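TA notes, week 10

Several of you asked for a full example with nothing omitted. So below is the full record: structure tokens for the whole chain, then the designed sequence directly under it. When grading your own attempts, check the secondary structure regions first.
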């Protein structure tokens, strides 16, 4: 009768550890890429909504605003005196909203809105956003950077 020992050989353990290391690296790389894309897509959508509010102010001849909500990580867009016609945009899960200056960007009928602002979008590993020039109301995307 043969006497078998229970357990794994050293080679089996090394192979399993190698597979686990490869899988965890792939998952981490994929998660970072997804967060970066979420920030980029949210910044592009925010810039489009800022441009929409600016255009509507000029076309309608009345003030439009983008109201930033850092508590809910969302913003609303619509005419200043007509809250019922606003639409609300929520950032994807895991992203936070912050800004410089006030939370209310009011576009005047001529397209400007006063003081410039930076609207930041933060994730756990990346940040980006949109910068808005007050005198012209023009916006540009900020470079997405790593936080650590």
């Amino acid at each position: 009768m043969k006497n078998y020992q229970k357990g794994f050989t050293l080679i089996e353990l090394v192979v399993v550890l190698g597979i686990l290391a490869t899988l965890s690296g792939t998952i981490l790389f994929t998660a970072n890429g997804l967060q970066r894309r979420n920030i980029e897509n949210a910044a592009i959508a925010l810039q489009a909504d800022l441009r929409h509010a600016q255009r509507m102010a000029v076309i309608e001849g009345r003030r439009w605003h983008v109201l930033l909500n850092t508590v809910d990580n969302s913003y609303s867009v619509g005419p200043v005196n007509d809250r019922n016609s606003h639409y609300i945009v929520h950032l994807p899960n895991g992203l936070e909203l912050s800004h410089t200056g006030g939370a209310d960007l009011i576009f005047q009928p001529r397209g400007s809105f006063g003081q410039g602002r930076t609207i930041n979008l933060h994730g756990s590993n990346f940040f980006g956003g949109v910068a808005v020039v007050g005198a012209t109301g023009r916006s540009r995307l900020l470079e997405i950077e790593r936080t650590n």
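DSSP finds one helix and eight strands in the chain. Use that as a sanity check on your answer.
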